[in-house]
Amino acid sequence: MMATLEHTNFTVRNPQATAAWMQDVFGWKTRWEGPAIAGGYTVHVGGAHTYLALYAPADPKPSGESSYDIVGGLNHVGVLVEDIDATEAKVRAAGFEPHNHADYEPGRRFYFDDDNGIEFEVVQYD
């Protein structure tokens, strides 16, 4: 039996604001939210079986480092969509700038950075 990725947890400035744009752009739902470790707050946003845990510590601090240069760094989150053009319009409406578009076997993709500096890759397979 093959394992399934159930969730990923990463730090954001404002979990509720991040969940809100993810709901608008990706159609996800908030599954749970509440107090978390070290006086922080977490929102779980996603679908019935997979989600992202968006955690904010009591005093979040921005990172000026590139995740691509750090062992264990989160480089990007890949999201599979059915309509990449409609999703790109929603990304722009959310205030983010798509970049690095490419058509490749077996589909299309683009990237965008959110207001936390997290890079997302949006993919549609043919």
UniProtKB/TrEMBL annotation:
Stated name of the protein: Catechol 2,3-dioxygenase
UniProt entry keywords in alphabetical sequence: Dioxygenase, Metal-binding, Oxidoreductase
InterPro entries cross-referenced by the UniProt entry: Glyas_Bleomycin-R_OHBP_Dase, Glyas_Fos-R_dOase_dom, MMCE/EMCE_epimerase, VOC_core
Alphabetized Pfam families for the sequence: Glyoxalase
Signal sequence region: none
Highest taxon in the source lineage: Bacteria
Sequence ranges assigned to domain VOC in this UniProt record: 4-125
Any one GO MF annotation of this record: dioxygenase activity
GO terms for biological process, alphabetical: L-methylmalonyl-CoA metabolic process
